[in-house]
Fold this protein.
Amino acid sequence: MENKASSHLLKYGRLVRPVAGTLIGLFLVWRLFTVLVIERNFSADTWVRFGLSGLILGGMYALIAIGYTLVYGIMFMINFAHGEVMMLGAFGGYFTFELLRYIPAATPENPDLNFLNAHPIISVILAFAVGIFVSATVGFFLEKIAYRPLRKAPRLILLITAIGASFFLQNLSMLAFGPQRKNIINPDILDRGTGWTLTISGNPVLISYTGVFSLVLSALLMIGLYILVMRTKLGRAMRAVAQDKNTAYLMGVDVDDVISKTFIISGVLAGAAGVMWDIHMGLVNHYVGFLPGIKAFTAAVMGGIGNIPGAMLGGMFLGILESLGPAALGIDFQLKDVIAFSILVLVLIVRPSGILGEKLSEEKL
């Protein structure tokens, strides 16, 4: 009787996903038709602004999501402290800009000139160097101190440890830097109010320098990472360890070293995303990495956790959905976070393997 009942439950369970997917799809089509065709609350220029904002945000989400995917692929764990690694990188960039603002670089023509505006390109490079160094160092020691001693423990223990590390870094930052939000002052060439202007439907649309800079740099970093993983000796070692640690060790791969370097690489990407957040968003505090970190995890799941191209695609897709979703569905823009987390639930229900999917080995299962 129990076997028969189990078979019935399994049979009905298989029907849940397609039925749920169909109902959700029909609802979304109905809402989109109502908002876009019948109500027409927004003009074309507004939709372009939403789309540009989504692309920029999606690039940052993608960089953070790749960090989740790299660590999961190597250790089969979700590093929930990754958002705080990004936050510390953002603080590194902020303090670099602040320091350079107080270094005088006066000229006879401009006696009040500081280093930040006298040498803007060097200042931006220094901010990224410091932010990346801070995040990479935090990622390295996080793995060495918090995760390595528990590597053979049940994965639930590692998950709880990661959540604890997240709260530890968050509260440590609050004590060290204070709870107040801090405004980032960019070099003049990356002023947040400047950019190129397009005219769409008779209205100006600003394409900001900070947005273009962040989007282009995100794309270059993602391309660089993909080349590193697919075309270098370290990348082959990372893929070997992800496939089978024991066999990789027997073939001469230093597993501990590969895992450490993986955390460093994920920290580099998170640090770069943190400095981009500084430059484009202009605000940083101890809590700034929490929501982007959770959303990047959503992006990684959406694309297929453990799948690097999937994390890239998922991050861009989530950024666009978050920006366009409230307007397209006719809901309050303050509910954009609800859209992101609803997507996570829907993906887990309808397609748990993500958009591009993930091949699960027995060890992962």
